[in-house]
Fold this protein.
Amino acid sequence: MGMVALSRSGTRLQDVAEVFAGVGVSREETIVRPGGRLRVIGVRDLQDGAVAAREALDTAGFSSPSKAMTYAVQADDVLVTGRGTLLKFGLVGVETVGAIASANIIVVRPGPDVAGGALFAILSSDVFRPKIEVLRRGATTLLSLSPKDLAKLEINLPSMNEQERIAVLVKEAQVAYRTALEAAEIRRSLGRRLIDARLFGDNQNH
């Protein structure tokens, strides 16, 4: 009742998305159980709005891989660091699908009327980030954010058309950013090779 009116304002994140923390990974268990190893997403795997690809992730052993799989990420999930010194965000792309979110990660899974890219843009925006920062508490420099608190944040979603436009822009920006990084890496390694050739001549590899 009155849900249509709510969608414009007064909507909470929990009304439009599922918000949950990942699963705890115990190092001891990993050593004891070599079987059932799965790729796990940690805080360091969230970089500049992107989430590391499956092959780049660490693996961990789980006593119940099928239970752990309930924490597997899906395309367009928005990941937020639940614990850590820095508040970071990531948008899950196809290259990360199926990896397991660790307990330090909060998964925000968009509902049917929400575009993940738009949700990512809103949560990581300069307007919204301070609202999330306020929710983070910690006695030390290691701050923690609870999925319950995050879920209660009020959020204004534009129309689905507008959300889809924003999502396209977000993905294009990520691709452009990654491509620029790769190009910079290539230029740097080429530069090093040229300098080495100048310094040591061409015979050092023969």
